[in-house]
Write a structure and sequence with these properties.
CATH architecture of the largest domain: 3-Layer(aba) Sandwich
Helix content: 10-25%
Number of domains: 2
Largest sheet: 9 strands, mixed
Structural class: alpha/beta
Bound molecules: zinc ion
Order of helices and strands: EEEEEEEHEEHEEEEEEHHEHEEHEEHHHH
Number of strands: 20
Radius of gyration: 23 Å
Shape: elongated
CATH class of the largest domain: Alpha Beta
CATH superfamily of the largest domain: Collagenase (Catalytic Domain)
Number of helices: 10
Length: 444
């Protein structure tokens, strides 16, 4: 459960892959449940092997795209195989109804996704399906929720809510293979249903957004967290099929790459190496309140959530041995305003992204107003999935919301990195020292 918008996990254990310089990108989508509950998860892992350099010379790749510095497969057509177990896939029709599709339909959606990418480039990029026994460039594999969980645990990642995972391996800018995993339905405590969402366009044709997203990961593209309607936005919005096409920048980039540069264009506007943008670090800095006490209000929260927030504020005061750092106001706008949301409100995600989404399950979104170098207002939106609502004690979720409210945005202490509504507030020493730097009065 969790995730920072573009959350990079550096892996300590390198799998025994006999190729050097492998960068393994694992990016997970999403998810939406069923009915009004909203929930998503995104993960990006990046792994680089700094050893095994002696193997370099053994590998020779015949590259048909020698003019291209962007990450790419070295030949066309790019082959793919589909190997998913014969389970049923459920999907959310976006009208509050969950429907089910069989394996063949799921496979067909995957084929459609490859076709749509190919067509979008005017046939410049070509894919060819091969059967699972053959060696393919991209392996599309179905995993059961259990298998997916085991797989992700190897990557020190949580699998809740994950329906798709797109990976690729590369040697410098040459992609040697891709793997895409999908997982079908998952029950959650007998109540909520993880769903495979399926979008259709106005002409009733299926637009397999998840499949396209994952394929683009395996082609080298990373997330674009700055544009809500990008196919590479890191999460899928509940009850929305807002993404209706592949970004023109991505199409132009693919045409450029797979024409070996003969078609005009480049990839500078996309998030593909070497143009990789680290959105999670970009433009983020800590913001500071001028002085304590700071007033705060809580809006739209049910009493357990309100209680949890207030508890975490008391814990904070206790840990720093200070009284009345925060003063509660009822029903009026304060310096800090917490808002509880069950789902991703349309007006929030339609609006310009003021601050990146962080974590997708649960999620926090922060807005700040600064005046003369100091914070004058923080609005912190907490998005509670239902399993968080079942947790009665204050958790790292509320703690991180408080950290954000007081302007701490850059610290990556253990209490923040993996925030979740099931952990009891940690107050990592790293975070505490950063807070003391920001607010020297907390150390006295
Ligand atoms: Zn993704």
């Amino acid at each position: 459960m969790k995730e920072s918008d573009v959350y990079v996990i550096k892996l300590s254990t390198v799998k025994t892959i006999k190729i050097i310089g492998i960068i393994l990108i694992a990016v997970i989508l999403i998810w939406s449940w069923f009915h009004s509950q909203s929930d998503s998860s995104q993960l990006q892992t990046q792994q680089s092997s700094d050893s095994q350099i002696e193997n370099t010379s053994q590998i020779e790749i015949n590259d048909q795209f020698t003019n291209i510095k962007e990450q790419h497969y070295t030949h066309l057509p790019i082959t793919y195989s589909i190997d998913i177990p014969s389970e049923n896939y459920y999907f959310d029709t976006y009208y509050g109804k969950v429907a089910m599709v069989g394996r063949e339909t799921k496979e067909q959606d995957i084929r459609t996704a490859f076709k749509l990418i190919e067509n979008s480039t005017g046939g410049i990029v070509k894919f060819r399906e091969v059967n699972p026994q053959e060696e393919a460039d991209i392996h599309v594999i179905g995993l059961t929720p259990l298998e997916m969980g085991t797989f992700l645990s190897e990557y020190n990642a949580s699998s809740d809510g994950t329906l798709g995972l797109g990976l690729h391996e590369n040697i410098t800018n040459k992609i040697t293979n891709g793997t895409i995993y999908f997982q079908p339905i998952q029950y959650y405590e007998n109540t909520a249903l993880w769903t495979y969402s399926r979008c259709t366009l106005a002409n009733k044709e299926v637009f397999p957004d998840t499949e396209i997203h994952e394929i683009l990961h395996s082609l080298g593209f990373y997330h674009n967290p700055t544009y809500i309607n990008s196919i590479m936005f890191p999460m899928k919005l509940t009850n929305k099929c807002n993404v209706k096409n592949i970004d023109s920048e991505i199409i132009q980039c693919l045409r450029y790459i797979y024409s070996n540069g003969s078609l005009i264009g480049d990839c500078a506007l996309t998030n593909i190496p070497p143009y990789l943008k680290n959105y999670s670090l970009e433009e983020k800095k800590d913001l500071i309140w001028n002085s304590f006490p700071i007033t705060y209000s809580i809006f739209n929260c049910e009493s357990p959530e309100k209680y949890k927030l207030q508890n975490v504020i008391r814990d904070f005061e206790t840990v720093f041995k200070k009284k009345n750092l925060f003063v509660y106001n009822e029903n009026t706008i304060s310096q800090i305003n917490f808002y509880c949301n069950d789902t991703y409100y349309e007006n929030l995600y339609e609006s310009e992204i003021a601050d990146y989404w962080e974590n997708f399950q649960p999620a926090i979104k922060s807005y700040y107003v600064e005046n003369m170098g100091y914070l004058s207002r923080s609005d912190i939106h907490l998005f509670y999935p239902s399993d968080c609502k079942r947790v009665s004690y204050a958790s790292n979720f509320e703690l991180v919301a408080l950290y954000r409210a007081i302007g701490l945005r850059t610290e990556e202490g253990e209490d923040i990195k993996d925030f979740s509504c099931s952990y009891i507030p940690g107050f990592s020493s790293k975070t505490m020292s950063r807070l003391k730097e920001m607010y020297p009065s907390l150390s006295t």
